[in-house]
Task: inverse folding
């Protein structure tokens, strides 16, 4: 199906110079002329190279948004400098019913960009050598800058020479925003098309909602502007400067959404690229005020301080500004600098003093939580998990309702395999925020881990209770689904071995409730039904087995046996009737014979 598109005048100029066109078109009927023109357009649209490559692209402002394509890459165009791009796809951790659907949508999304650009994407299993990595996650880790359903991260070449070209990591968050349900397939298509667009060089956002690269995309396919922009971009040298147009686009975005830390961060990077470190620092400070957990903003601020002087000199300037008159603002600035330096104990000391001077300051409270958070993460990274627990408990004395610190504590207990403690902490989060998605997902994972733990002790019933409770919190916890199914199968096989066919039937039926595509469950259900004489139901179960696994020879044998059995039963039912008919015929024949003998005697 094609949408009617008005060809640019340059397209008709191209057709005009075709010899057959100039010689023949004047003598053809009008409708045939129109058909030929439409046919040519469809041909050029459908062949592998894009329409935008076949016809010159107009330079008018509405035809593309090239000037917005370096908003998030320091104001410089950044794209792969080759036509074949390798892609690694991580395992998709969703329910079995969605895995194939998600994979197909992923392939189709790359195909849309292939048709639009003439680029070729090759899928490989070696993550290290791939240009694009597709990763899947159930929830965003603390410290992200924006809450969208996907995120693309540009990894620049390694200065040590280990990586000579750019890589892009695309992380897809498979849960719907602020919900526990998985993404709808068509929503996933929109997210993938948008993030792949970033990966191939569209490192900015369109201002029109009809484009896939709009900052909150809603469409399901590429627009003509998307196609025109990407093809124009791929003609430009890598590193081409778009500083001013990028700054203009970002500042326009800020007039609509003033508190977007991501946009401030991008503006700061452009000022850094222009060498204006003072202005960059000012912008980064605004960004970290909005989101004190934004690690990459803090990192860029640290880079600027290192280039300008060092942390010690920066701290001396702050102390000099205090000059015997400490204020909450100045003490807070010193504490924030210590966070950036990684000196979390001193950060907590000065932020604590600032908070005592201004106990109502929400900014100081957030920065205190950030200091405890980063200190605990630093301790965990060093393997000091007990110390991290102590730090988080200290923080929770001051901020008992901080879901950030509680979540850190729960995840730390999980790393220590103290699953019961982790469970209790996640329960505390849900008391504060009943719809805390990360806590729901994590508590389900914790219950699954408890199930695995007791399953290792062969306490199967208790393990299944944990798996079922896990699914009560997160119906899409695929690990718990898998473990419950496997444990139920073991239980069902045990009942079959004991010839307790009624319990076996119930158990295998429960497996099918959780995994409707499990051929083994249908096969074993068929055996238990067959053993109870429920032949028709058994027949259906074996049919389902073969639908899922056409080469299942044991199911085929049972179906042949059932067919033979049915033939035998049919013969058993019809044999008495046949014998009765034969007997009746014999009696009639004897009566006729006797009657004929009597006539002969007379």
Result:
């Amino acid at each position: 199906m094609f949408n009617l598109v008005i060809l640019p005048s340059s397209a008709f100029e191209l057709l005009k110079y075709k010899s057959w066109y100039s010689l023949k078109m004047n003598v053809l009927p009008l409708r045939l002329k129109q058909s030929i023109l439409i046919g040519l357009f469809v041909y050029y649209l459908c062949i592998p190279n894009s329409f935008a490559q076949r016809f010159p692209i107009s330079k008018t402002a509405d035809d593309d948004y090239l000037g917005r394509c370096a908003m998030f890459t320091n104001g410089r165009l950044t794209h792969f400098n080759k036509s074949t791009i390798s892609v690694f796809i991580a395992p998709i951790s969703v329910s079995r019913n969605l895995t194939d659907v998600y994979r197909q949508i992923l392939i189709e999304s790359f195909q849309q960009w292939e048709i639009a650009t003439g680029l070729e994407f090759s899928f490989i299993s070696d993550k290290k050598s791939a240009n694009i990595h597709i990763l899947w996650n159930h929830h965003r880790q603390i410290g992200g800058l924006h809450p969208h359903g996907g995120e693309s991260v540009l990894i620049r070449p390694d200065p040590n020479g280990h990586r000579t070209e750019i890589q892009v990591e695309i992380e897809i968050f498979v849960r719907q925003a602020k919900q526990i349900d998985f993404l709808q397939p068509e929503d996933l298509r929109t997210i993938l098309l948008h993030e792949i667009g970033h990966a191939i060089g569209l490192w900015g956002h369109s201002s029109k909602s009809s484009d896939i690269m709009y900052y909150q995309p809603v469409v399901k396919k590429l627009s003509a502007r998307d196609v025109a922009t990407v093809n124009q971009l791929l003609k430009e040298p890598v590193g081409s400067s778009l500083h001013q147009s990028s700054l203009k686009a970002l500042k326009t975005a800020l007039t609509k959404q003033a508190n977007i830390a991501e946009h401030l961060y991008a503006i700061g990077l452009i000022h850094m690229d222009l060498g204006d470190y003072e202005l960059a620092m000012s912008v980064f400070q605004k960004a970290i005020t909005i989101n004190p957990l934004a690690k990459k903003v803090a990192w860029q601020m640290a880079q600027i301080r290192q280039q300008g002087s060092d942390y010690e000199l920066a701290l001396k300037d702050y102390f000099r500004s205090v000059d015997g008159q400490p204020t909450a603002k100045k003490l807070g600035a010193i504490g924030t600098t210590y966070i950036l330096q990684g000196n979390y104990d001193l950060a907590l000391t000065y932020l604590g003093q600032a908070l005592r001077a201004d106990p109502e300051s929400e900014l100081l409270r957030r920065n205190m939580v950030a200091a405890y958070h980063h200190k605990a993460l630093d301790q965990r990274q060093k393997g000091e998990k007990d110390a991290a627990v102590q730090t988080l408990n200290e923080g929770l004395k001051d901020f008992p309702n901080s879901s950030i610190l509680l979540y850190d504590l729960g995840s730390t207990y999980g790393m220590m395999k103290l699953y019961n403690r982790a469970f209790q902490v996640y329960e505390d989060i849900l008391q504060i925020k009943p719809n805390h998605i990360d806590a729901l997902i994590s508590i389900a994972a914790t219950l699954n881990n408890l199930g695995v733990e007791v399953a290792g002790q062969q306490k199967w019933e208790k393990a299944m209770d944990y798996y079922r409770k896990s699914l009560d919190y997160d119906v899409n916890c695929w690990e718990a689904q898998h473990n419950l199914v496997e444990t139920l199968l073991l239980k069902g096989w045990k009942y079959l071995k004991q010839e307790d066919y009624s319990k076996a039937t119930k158990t295998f039926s429960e497996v099918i409730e959780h995994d409707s595509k499990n051929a083994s469950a249908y096969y074993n259900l068929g055996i238990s039904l067959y053993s109870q004489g429920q032949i028709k139901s058994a027949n259906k179960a074996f049919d389902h087995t073969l639908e899922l696994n056409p080469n299942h020879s044991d199911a085929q044998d049972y179906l042949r046996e059932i067919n033979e059995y049915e033939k035998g039963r049919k013969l058993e039912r019809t044999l008495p009737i046949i014998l009765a008919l034969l007997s009746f015929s014999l009696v009639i024949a004897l009566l006729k014979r006797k009657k004929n003998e009597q006539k002969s005697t007379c």
In short: The chain has four domains: 9-46, 68-256, 309-397, 403-550.
